[in-house]
Specification:
143 residues; alpha+beta; VC0802-like; Alpha-Beta Plaits; six-stranded antiparallel sheet; 32% helix
């Protein structure tokens, strides 16, 4: 399924993400997935929350520059090599995976969930739905 990812850039200094977490926590927003990529000066924080619209509004009201992106949330079979069930169909459709990170929780079937950022989101969703139903006999992830 598609979901809205929120991305912000933070100064790479102690307490920067704590401030973000406090802003969201006060507003009752729960972070469900998070990825931090750092350089020496700036960290890019990508996350999914239980209310992306409210998250973006809260962060903007606190002066953060917010980027909203459609990403995929996909259940992954929980066994060695299980990630191949997602990556092989994407490669076969010439879809580039830019990044992925874990979702904090499991899907309806009890399998782990990953968040995937790709270059062709709509096509990736179509490919994964087709492959997932063919391979596992059911719909792709539902959160």
């Amino acid at each position: 399924m598609c979901l809205k990812q929120i991305s912000i850039s933070l100064e790479n200094a102690p307490g920067q993400f704590l401030t973000v977490s406090e802003c969201l926590g006060v507003e009752g927003i729960n972070i469900r997935a998070i990825s931090v990529a750092d350089t020496s000066d700036v960290s890019t924080v990508r996350f999914a929350t239980d209310n992306p619209e409210k998250t973006a509004n809260v962060l903007r009201s606190h002066g953060y520059s917010v980027k909203e992106t459609e990403v995929l949330a996909v259940e992954v079979p929980d066994h060695p090599g299980g990630l191949q069930a997602v990556l092989k169909p994407l490669k076969g459709a010439n879809i580039n995976v830019h990044y992925l990170y874990p979702y904090l929780g499991r899907g309806e079937s009890g399998q782990p969930i990953i968040i995937i950022g790709v270059d062709k989101t709509e096509k990736a969703l179509e490919v994964l739905k087709k492959n997932w139903v063919h391979t596992f006999g059911k719909e792709i992830c539902a959160l």
